[in-house]
Specification:
Structural class: alpha+beta
Oligomer: single chain
Number of strands: 3
Radius of gyration: 16 Å
Order of helices and strands: HEEEHHHH
Bound molecules: zinc ion
Low-confidence stretches: 105-127
Length: 170
């Protein structure tokens, strides 16, 4: 029986081989933001069409490892059509996922089959990540076992955040 990690690997490879929202938007009017991860050589270009308070379109360019490119694909699918506030919420949620997983890997906390749980509350109750809300993005949680790859996974999200910040600043 394929385990959760195999399923996650399939989701990551699917986004890598069939990236969503790949391409460019005319800039301007779209906002164009570039991100670079020198540790791995990943490049991401994010094009954002923001109309009022809505991210109406997202396109992704660039090149790099499977983690960086699949994360960018998932990011584009997750935020397209969402409000700017929702996009910021997803950035926060995803970055939380990337920072808490090590704690969740404590042997005493981890039971086989419990990974489908849609919430995680840390011992002090401060961390809560809704994996269902994250959809395919939950597949990237295994990345946290490989700290050098975290920057690959978060690159497109940091680039998106920079674009939203620039948009807000006018
Ligand atoms: Zn990478």
């Amino acid at each position: 029986m394929p385990g959760l990690e195999d399923l996650y690997r399939e989701i990551i490879l699917d986004h890598y081989r069939n990236p969503r929202n790949r391409g460019e938007l005319a800039s301007p009017p779209a906002r164009r933001v570039e991100g670079f991860n020198p540790l791995c050589g990943d490049e991401i270009v994010v094009f954002l069409d923001i109309d009022g308070d809505t991210v109406t379109d997202v396109k992704i360019g660039g090149q790099g490892c499977s983690i960086s490119q699949s994360s960018a694909s998932m990011m584009s699918a997750a935020v397209k059509g969402k409000s700017v506030a929702e996009a910021r919420g997803l950035i926060h949620t995803f970055k939380s996922l990337m920072s808490i997983h090590e704690a969740r890997l404590e042997p005493s906390q981890t039971e086989p089959g419990s990974a489908a749980s849609d919430t995680n509350t840390g011992p002090s109750g401060e961390v809560e990540v809704d994996l269902k809300r994250l959809g395919d993005l939950a597949a990237l949680q295994g990345v946290v076992k490989f700290p050098v790859r975290i920057k690959c996974a978060t690159l497109s999200w940091n680039t998106l955040a920079q674009g939203l910040d620039e948009e807000e600043a006018g």
